[in-house]
Amino acid sequence: MTDRQAPWTEDQVRALAPDASSLAAARKLAGRWRSTGAAGTAVWGLCQGSGSKPYQTIVDLAGPAYKCSCPSRKFPCKHALSLLLTWSGGTVPVQDAPADFAAEWLAGRAAKAAAPPKTKATATPSQATVEQRRARVSAGLTELEVWLTDQIRTGLAQTDRSFAAYEAIAARMVDAQAPGVAATLRRLPAQVVTTEHWPELLLREYARLHLLVLAHRTLDALPEPLQAGIRTHVGYPIQAETVLAEPAVRDRWLVLGMRVSEEDRLHTRRTWLRARGSGRWAVLIEHSFGTPNFTGEVPVPGHEVNADLHYYPGAAPLRVQWGTRHGAPEPFTTVPPTGGTTIDDALDAYAGALSNDPWLRAWPALLTEVVPVLGEHGWQLVDPDGVALPLSAGARPWRLIAVSGGHPVTLTGEWRADGFDPISVFAAGEVTDLETEFPTQSAATPELADLVSVALLGTARRTADSVELAGAVAAAVPQRSGEPAVRLLDTAALQDLYLRGGRLPSSAPKPEPACDDPRRLLPRQAADRLSRLLADKSVFLPEWFAAAAPFDFRLPDVLCVQALTAASDSNLRAPLLKLAGRRGRWLAARNPAWSGLLDSFPVDRATTVEPDAEGSEPSGTADIWLFGAPGERKDWLAQVRRTDPAAAREVLSTAWAKESGPIKAELLALLGRGLNLDDEPLLERALDDRRGDVRRTAAGLLARLPGSAFGQRMAALVSSWVRVDADGTVTVTVPAEVDAEARRDGVTDSTDQPKMRWDTPDSTVKTLHQAIAATPLTAWAPLVPATASAAPTRTPPSGAVRGVSGSAEPVVGNRVDATSAQRDTATAALTLTLPPRYAKAIVDGWVDATIAQRDTTWARALFAHATPTEQAVLRRRELFTLLDAADRIEHVLDLDAHQLTELHAILPGLDHPWPPQVADHVLRLLGERARTTARQPHATAGVYTDRALLTAAGVHLPVDLATRVTALAGTTEDPAWQQAFHRLAHDLTDRATMLEELR
To answer: How many Å apart are CA 171 and CA 665, to the nearest integer?
Structure first.
């Protein structure tokens, strides 16, 4: 074998994917590979699928070419992509020789390559064939000219603009062997129905085709380069050998951009290259039908290669074919300004190319030191002198704006008739592709308005003689009599060329740039990982955010666009906005779709002064509280509350009368940290607020405050409604109407009703639930009789608490602390005989009060002896989280393989990652389930039954257990479980890599 080839980058592998779904599926196969290897230009491996026999996958990197035993019709398939990704990650071992199954296929390829080429018929067509084709093309173009003049004579407003009408004339062009013209015609109906200024678009395209027809008639009288260009636009084929016979142009070619498009299943990849020495442009165009299966020989953007390029013949040569390479691609960090890099240079180059090839649609340009600016006329690019060039109408180039941040950048793109199309941006030594959105929107050209008006009405009703033209255009219009429609097309073609070639730049002021963020940049691999996690909405995101938080990273500028889009999810908003930082805030202020996030950005710590040694309020930060956005004010108050609770309370009390909106409740909720009786006056004041969310927040905090007047009022209220007899029987008497004081405390507050987990027309049930949920749990000690307290373990009667859920739950920790009055009270309360009408309200009220007050004693008793109502399964999990860590672990270890439903329900209440004892227990249970399936294939212990537990294990198991899980897969006989364990091992390895990338 030849020397081993260095692994490709992930970007190179990603470029080979036929579609996004294949790439996503490939990533999920990462844990299924075995017997992998790499030797020379070959990579191979076995991938475990759904069957017992793994798929054999081989990649010949020299092609690249792919071989896989799977039935997929995509090339490369997901298995080949996954193998290449694994190889790219450095986890495929180097071997001395390929595996047998790979060697056989590689030998067949080598034999075919070594075989002498078959003799081909001469590629040069005979003169008779050339003349015959030209006659067909000429006849077809003559029919096209008649069709064009009919359209203009009748009037664009009256003609048939349906898809069928254009398909009919396009089919005639195909019969006439003019596929280039046919392609243009087939694009028109879609553009007409999606473009506001469609009459102008049609007139431009009809004039362009008219000019092509005229040029083809006089083809022999034109210079050879222009003849070649005309033949290309018409669609004459050109042999690759003919192109390679053209003189080679050698230079160091910088790959500045790459795009893939698709039309009628034909995928086209365009790669823009620029010569480092001369500044000359080249475009490499590749086609692949069905799937975007392009060769890997083209370097990815950001690399340069010393190579020969051969230009296709033409008046303005741009398209090329690869010739001989004189070295391997290398990354570059500089782009020389040779060949002109100003806005004026770009316009001059376009005008020059247009004069050589009037049918040219775009010309590449490299612009240095330009800043994207949003003005009254849309987005523009402004250079240091204030000279401006518009972007295409309706463009939303947010990736470009993110990278620039109002600072000058180097931009690669194409200048077109409707503006500049950015392709990539070069900043900080890196090339970034720009996924620019271009809605179906165009700007009208006032200089063509009169001609468009004539074309709309038709020359049968109005001629173009009265249209005022520029002197140069009027002089160039052929002064021939005859068909007015032909004269209008002549005039429109010349006017369009005059306007496109004579475009002058405008001027615009530069924007206020974004402030630099001094924080450490998120490492490249971690940034790529976050981008994938966000795109997949991965379950690993919480762990990633938690691991990244201590480092206080900032996002790469281009990733801010994805972060702001993903921040619409409230669960991700806070960490994403913190990572986005100053650049994210600057971007959000300029995009209406993100403007709602401005109120959620945290305080910019880099602009604030740290507290002094005594912990007093940071100086110079008062403006944040007085004038900051809601997110900044909340963040600032939370910081002050952590360092000086009294100062935070005083600041909030002073501003309380002026606060309004949802932020009022959010600010009040910050008092929950360090809550004490000094906060009571402000919370009592908040009970009289007009906003329901403020009143509920205040009531919730007061209920947690030991010794508060609110708690005493709730206790008195419940005591007046609930009576416990000596035998433990509970009698409830709730009035239909409560007094004003109870309503002030939130009882019967209708805004609370959406939180109810059961519905009943009995208003007294809801009233009792609200009162009990707000009552301090210590208030139940006087209500529980001594007889009940003395017998906490007796069997409850039929109407007791155990009957609320309809089933008894496993008991955790039967030990009763005799010295704990609170434990006695909770245990005794759960043995009371509750009236069926109010049983659910009382139990749910206890549960809600326990969770709100975070009372471990009551949580242990409720979790052991009672379950919330049927609709409140998640409340049991919340009770579980309040137990001591030892109690939680003990309960999990008591569950066996027949109680996986209970296990899965409470596992989220454990710390992350799971404690070692729990991790060992879960793996043993999964192993038992796998062995049961192997012994009893038709049993209900299949892997799909336990996929939720497997998913949770992949998220929460310690990452150092990957080796153990792999070993478990090796001892598992059931193929489905073996695959599941491989996937679990991969998830753990992936998480370990994810965490390592952040260090």
So the answer is: 67
CA distance 291 to 74: 7
Positions of the chain with pLDDT under 50: 1-2, 122, 438-440, 609-620, 752-756, 786-819, 871
Strand partners, 391: 420
Here the tokens at position 564 are: 């702001």
CB burial string 617-645: b at 16+ within 10 A, e below:
bbeebeebbeebbbbbbbbbbbbbbeebb
Tokens encoding 385: 């002198």
Distances (CA, A) of 54 to 43, 49, 65, 106, 947: 16, 6, 20, 19, 22
Q: Find, among 427, 456, 528, the residue nearest to 203 by Cα.
A: 456
Neighbour-count burial of 938, counting CB atoms closer than 10 A to its CB (0-12 exposed, 13-18 middle, 19+ buried): exposed
Q: Give the chain's length.
A: 999
State both tokens at 249. 């142009």
Query: How confident is the model at residue 867, as a pLDDT?
Result: 58
Which residue type sits at 265?
R
Q: How far apart are the first and last CA of the chain?
A: 38
Where is 241: in which H helix or E strand?
A: helix 240-244
How is the chain split among helix, strand and coil, in percent rounded to 5? 50, 15, 35
> Does residue 913 have a cis peptide bond before it, meaning omega lies within 30 degrees of 0?
yes
- Under 8 Å CB-to-CB from 290, ≥6 apart: which residues? 265, 267
Calculate ∠ Cα 289-55-525, nearest 5°.
75
Unique residue bearing structure tokens 């909030």: 652
Specify whether the CB–CB gap between 390 and 419 falls below 8 A: yes
Query: DSSP alpha helices (H): ranges in 775-855?
Result: 786-790, 821-829, 839-853
Nearest to 821 by CA among 850, 769, 861, 869: 861
C-alpha pair distances (Å), 476 with each of 470, 491, 500, 655: 10, 9, 16, 75
pTM: 0.80
Q: How far is CA 884 from CA 857, 879, 892, 911, 920, in A?
A: 10, 11, 13, 11, 20
pLDDT at 556: 94
Q: Calculate ∠ Cα 158-160-161, nearest 5°.
A: 110
The DSSP code for 119 is P
Spatial contact of 106 and 60, defined as CB atoms under 8 Å apart: yes
Give the H or E element holding residue 657. Answer: none
Secondary structure of residue 33 in the 3-state scheme: strand
DSSP code of residue 801:
G
Residue 757: how many other CB atoms lie within 10 Å: 17
| Residue 365 to residue 342: CA distance in whole angstroms | 9
Following CA atoms 397, 401, 403, 409 in sequence, which dihedral angle do they give, to the nearest 10 degrees? 100
> Which residue type does 889 have?
I
Tell me the pairing of strands 303-311 and 248-263: antiparallel
CA–CA dist 451, 711 (Å, integer):
82
CA distance 660 to 657: 8
Distance separating alpha carbons of residues 986 and 86, to the nearest angstrom? 11
pLDDT tens digit sequence for 203-219: 999 999 999 999 999 99
CA distance 485 to 487: 5
Residues 6+ apart with CB under 8 A from 118: none
What the block records as the tokens of 589 is: 């202020």
The SS3 of residue 263 is strand
Q: Which pLDDT score is estimated for 739?
A: 86
Residue 41 CA, distance from chain mean position: 34
The CA-CA-CA angle for residues 578, 579, 583, to 5°, reads 95
CB–CB of 748/770 below 8 Å?
Answer: yes
Task: Please write the tens of the pLDDT for every residue from 416-435.
Answer: 888 899 999 999 888 998 87
Which amino acid type is present at position 511?
P
- Type of residue numbered 585: R
**588 and 597 in contact (C-beta within 8 Å)?**
yes
pLDDT at 660: 85
